[in-house]
Amino acid sequence: MTITAAADGSALGNPGPAGWAWYIDDDTWRAGGWPHGTNNMGELKAVLDLLESTADAGLGAEELLVLCDSQYVINSVTKWMPGWKKKGWRKRDGKPVLNVELMKALDAALEGRQVRFEWVKGHAGHPLNEAADQRANAAATAFQKKQAPPEGPGLGGEVPTSVPNTTDVRDDGTDEVTGRELALWSDAVRADHRLADQLLHPELTEITTTGTLLDREAVLDSLVPLVGFDAVDEVCGADITVQQIAPTVILLTYITSGAAGTTHRSSLWVREGEQWTLRHHQATPVQG
Length: 288
What we know:
The chain has helices spanning 39-56, 71-86, 100-110, 127-144, 174-183, 187-190, 193-197, 216-222, 231-239, and strands at residues 2-11, 16-25, 28-37, 63-68, 115-119, 200-207, 213-215, 241-246, 249-258, 261-272, 275-285. The chain is α/β, with parallel strands linked by helices and 288 residues long.
């Protein structure tokens, strides 16, 4: 049997009053939160609580399919976590991993489990994702009003207590932006322009390795799967340099290598409201 559940997080202000939730159906869901947290904390905690709740209910041997709208969570769990763990929960640049206690708890909860993650577009009408989002937002709103959040019926197991609430949280968006950058290199996004569309700013521009200036439509047209281009996963997961230009502006720089040669890349991401989108990308070939 495969258990299919959506997991989502919410933060009012990001950081601010925060909530998380996982949802299987109207009779099987759970939610919670913190007085002060981030979207990423909520997304991670939702997955963690889902893992722990299914284990407590005696369902740990069943395959679990987690629907998630956060590339940050999916990439953290499926791509970056093993490397972070080997380096003492630090990135390659030596900086500590954000949300490390949640990451460590997830690492332990995933041990011996059959878990698959599937990315879904947020706020696009997906019934399970929408249900999880509504419950996570309700939990965050309850904490904002200093009320007890609606916790849901759960799965009938004991309430997991592995990660304490915290009011000392900082998330500047760098992990989320890094995850979105990596998503633009993934075959799943490059093969489906509906997925890529939500990552791109309406006024996106790109300068290619030949010096050609592309607008948003041309960038979308240029996106095709890069089969066999696995090196970029390591680049985006570890070697990327992040600069916080302003509270709502982040610059990413990194190097890619492939059949076409070595390329210096820079991406400028901006946040408008709660959404980070790519505003400009430049690719400069390394002359060898």
